[in-house]
Write a structure and sequence with these properties.
By secondary structure, the chain is of the alpha/beta class. Helices cover 15% and strands 29% of the residues. The chain has 5 helices and 15 strands. It has helices at residues 10-13, 89-94, 111-114, 130-139, 210-221; strands at 3-5, 21-24, 30-32, 49-54, 57-62, 65-71, 76-79, 101-105, 125-129, 149-151, 154-159, 162-168, 178-182, 187-189, 227-229. Strand 8, helix 3 (111-114) and strand 9 (125-129) form a beta-alpha-beta unit. The longest helix has 12 residues, at 210-221. It is globular, with a radius of gyration of 19 Å. Bound molecules: zinc ion. Zinc ion binds at residues 108, 110, 113, 173, 192. Zinc ion (ZN) binds next to loops.
């Protein structure tokens, strides 16, 4: 979604409680500006934000997208590959570890989240839900290599001291969109469902099933987690339980 400032007539601004207002491309009516409380932090001088959100688990954000990677002592596990992070991802990983990238987890098939997956080594093991794999076979997009390991319900990726529980809980965003939970550090990643600081009113973040989308929020609260990584945000930030 893009917003462009527009000059408003006095009739349009009269009685407005929130100012300034913006026209949103492709939508009718006016939108209030993003409130200060919903803005994230500056990406920093490198053009991206990089933070060890839990011991051994690194969060990276730029261009409205974010994801995580983690060294394990036996190779790096990385989740997703947003194209907006492509210029930074490998550099950020190398700034924290010399371990090779051995495992790539796809949260789902959308190109804005995994469209730079070809930047990772061909030898890396790519893991995804089988619905995601089927979509990627159909897309035949060289930027999104087809996963080599697939699962239907759940998959435990246990490497070194990291334990990643991958679970499919229904069509909450698109078929194959999975919950990614690092149980030793209680970090949950769920992409394109929760948006820290704002709500995707327009098209509900292209959710395929509105009921499943809403139910997923209760599922999230059922996880024993205190950090939630959401994959996309208006500005660099991740979420907590409150
Ligand atoms: Zn998506």
């Amino acid at each position: 979604m893009t917003s462009t400032p527009a000059a408003l007539s006095s009739e349009e601004t009269e009685g407005s409680a929130l100012a300034p207002q913006f026209h949103c491309a492709g939508s009718r009516g006016l939108f209030a500006a993003v409130p200060a409380a919903s803005r994230g932090r500056s990406p920093g001088p490198n053009g991206y934000a990089l933070e060890e959100i839990k011991p051994g688990i690194f969060w990276i954000s730029a261009g409205g997208y974010d994801t995580i990677f983690m060294p394990t002592g036996e190779g790096v596990i990385v989740v997703d590959a947003p194209p907006t992070l492509a210029p930074h991802m490998l550099k950020a990983i190398r700034s924290k570890t010399a371990e090779p990238i051995e495992y790539v987890v796809y949260s789902h098939s959308h190109v804005d989240h995994i469209g730079a997956a070809d930047h990772y080594p061909e030898t890396a093991i790519r893991i995804a839900h089988d619905a995601t794999a089927n979509l990627l076979v159909r897309y035949a997009d060289p930027r999104r290599p087809v996963p080599s390991v697939v699962f239907s319900d759940e998959f435990l990726l246990e490497v070194g001291d990291r334990k990643l529980e991958l679970r499919y809980r229904g069509n909450i965003h698109q078929p194959g969109n999975i919950f990614i939970y690092e149980s030793t550090q209680r970090v949950l990643m769920l992409v394109d469902v929760i948006f820290p600081g704002w709500v995707p009113f327009r098209n509900l973040a292209v959710a395929n099933d509105v009921h499943e989308f809403i139910r997923a929020h209760d599922t999230v609260l059922g996880y024993d987690c205190d950090v939630i990584v959401c994959g996309a945000s208006y500005a660099p930030r991740y979420a907590g339980r409150r």
